[in-house]
């Protein structure tokens, strides 16, 4: 089974803190994604990566950055957390070509910024 | 018009009922469509794909209406375990590209 793991299920941080969310997948997938999910807004893409050291902005990249130093690991960084970044963060991965629409999601990290 | 629009529901149906939800999309060039299922407090998982006229998998049928730009998901003989949020998903660019646009979901509650 494909497994996508995220470093924390729940996280509480203070405004202005630097926050790291880690995601690891074990299926050698080329693509990795970070989404946030908010009620009424659905899943919105923050950043994605097609390869190691490669990143592209999604729909809402402001206030976030990412790092992909190894194929299996994709990190989301909140440089200076703000209360409007309180959300559920979901990481996903998929193959490059075959069935690349099938994204496998991690369990999510519920981040609260106070 | 939003890229992908869904009725949020909830759809409350008794066990054994047939229920259907629609999803409209704005990009007429889209070729493929997907339904993901998300259980409460869980991650989304792929349920079905729709490429041309439709797709059937057991009690689930997904259909595509290109002229009106909507896809539908029909669930027959609903089970309690079908209770979940169903997300309509359309790839950006119209093909099977990796970037996906997710609808906000339709919540289904199946009751005894």
Topology, element by element:
The complex is a heterodimer of chains A (114) and B (112).
Chain A: E1 4-6, E2 10-13, E3 19-25, E4 31-38, E5 42-49, E6 56-57, E7 64-70, E8 73-78, E9 87-94, E10 104-105, E11 109-113
Chain B: E1 4-6, E2 11-14, E3 19-25, E4 33-38, E5 44-50, E6 54-57, E7 60-65, E8 70-75, E9 84-91, E10 100-102, E11 106-111
Parallel strand pairs in B: 2-11
Antiparallel strand pairs in B: 1-3, 3-8, 4-5, 4-9, 6-7, 7-8, 9-10, 9-11
What does this entry look like structurally?
The complex is a heterodimer of chains A (114) and B (112). By secondary structure, chain A is mainly beta. Chain A is built from no helices and eleven strands. Chain A has strands at 4-6, 10-13, 19-25, 31-38, 42-49, 56-57, 64-70, 73-78, 87-94, 104-105, 109-113. In chain A, the strands form two sheets. In chain A, strands 2, 4, 5, 6, 9, 10 and 11 form a seven-stranded mixed β-sheet that branches. In chain A, strands 1-3-8-7 form a four-stranded antiparallel β-sheet, with no helix packed on it. Chain A is globular and about 40 Å long. Chain A starts with a strand and ends with a strand. Chain B is mostly beta strands and 112 residues long. Helix content of chain B is 0%, strand content 54%. Chain B is built from no helices and eleven strands. In chain B, the strands form two sheets. In chain B, strands 2, 4, 5, 9, 10 and 11 form a six-stranded mixed β-sheet that branches. The model of chain B has no long low-confidence stretch (mean pLDDT 91). Chain A binds chain B through residues 31, 33, 35, 40-43, 45, 48, 50, 58, 90, 94, 96, 100-103, 105-108, and chain B through 8, 32, 34, 42-46, 49, 87, 89, 91, 96-100, 102-105.
